[in-house]
Amino acid sequence: MTAGSDGKTIDGMSMKRIEALIQKLKDFSYQPKPDRRTYIPKANGKTHPLGIPSFDDKLVQEVVRMILESIYEPTFHVMEPTDLSDEWHMCWECQRCLAGCPTGALSICGKKPEDSLSRDLLPSPLQMEALLTNRRSCRSFKQENVDPELIRHILHVCGNSPTGSCNQVYECTVIDDKEVMREFTSLLRDEMYQQAAKGIYPPRFTKEDLAVFKTCYDKGEEFCFRGAPHMLAVHAPTTRGEWVFDTTIALTYAELAMTCNGLGVIYLTTPWAALQVCPKSRAFLQIPEDHYISCLVGFGKPEFQFPRGVQRSDALKIHRILGENRQELL
Q1: First-last CA distance in the chain
Q2: Which of 110, 247, 263, 293 is the most exposed place for a label (fewest CB within 10 A)?
Q3: DSSP letters along 249-313, please?
């Protein structure tokens, strides 16, 4: 039997030991002991941290779980998409309880607290400022695929982005192969020309805009996607949640995560607008018709990295409200 952080095991458990524990709970002298940290090797060569509590702490945790379960289980259940009769009293699977438990004693939705990243790993204010000021739109990409595992990891991390109503129903559609990206680029360009011949243009697009667009392509300039080998679309159904806010926040999370991992990113506003009038291209992405798409981003390995950030904050206007008055905040 594995010993806990206090060196004791379940061996020798007796009513005397249990009664002593109960008395500590009654007189508020009970204090949980720190877990004993150990590391288990993983198949990829890394290690997985494991916290081993004392048996007394584990016993108390289990008893508390049983008590709470008996109280809340009859009325506390996970919300299904078709079960909206009393949604405010249902579990939204936000894991706020897992994150907020001070002793790390609570597991929920199959997640364990020891698998969560610690606040000790948060970047400093200066590091965060460096990230925000060094993030630039990339307009020159290497024509090679990014490791699919890195893309998968980034998107799963971005699945932690906040949502407007805890309804985390947005989805990600990604093109992670440069050959498929070339196919989609050609399809969208040709469909834009076909629609323009019928007098149908993307929102905020004019005949003159399309002429500039075509001139660039005729010169061999990849104007729309800037040669990005991959693309990400975040979309959500317009029947649940806050689809505009949720998809925009998630896409921003993705952009910052890609920047931290050394990838170049560019917002693809022209292709996004074109999708509004190009049904064949939208069908290629297999995004349902009732889904809202916040924007598209192209990403990949950049041809070069900017060595420093920018200093554009002087152009920002900040309005400070003082009761009925308003003044500029310098």
Answers
A1: 64
A2: 110
A3: HHHHHHHHHHHHTT-EEEE-HHHHHHHTT-HHHHHHHT--TTEEEEEEEEEE-BSS--SS----G
